[in-house]
Design a protein that fits this description.
Layout: H1 2-12, E1 15-20, E2 23-28, H2 32-44, E3 55-58, E4 63-66
Antiparallel strand pairs: 1-2, 3-4
Length: 74
């Protein structure tokens, strides 16, 4: 979980840069807590018996989280 979040934050997450006086402020394009919750959900709800990897795709306007699995039958 922590390794996935570190990778997302350092390599894939887009930051908006603004300046306050001489200080630079970086604000992530997407809320980090929302990404953390989504990563946790995709890990917890993964069907580990399938052998299929979790996929996280990041675009400029949205992020998709996908894992192989079916909803339980009624």
């Amino acid at each position: 979980m922590d390794k996935a979040m570190d990778l997302i934050k350092t390599k894939y997450l887009i930051y908006r840069i603004s300046y306050e006086g001489i200080s630079c402020r970086e604000t992530p394009r997407f809320p980090v807590e929302a990404i953390r919750e989504s990563v946790m959900n995709v890990i917890v709800h993964k069907d580990y018996s399938s052998g299929v990897s979790i996929q996280i795709s990041m675009f400029s306007a949205y992020i998709t989280f996908w894992n192989f699995g079916l909803l339980p039958e009624d």
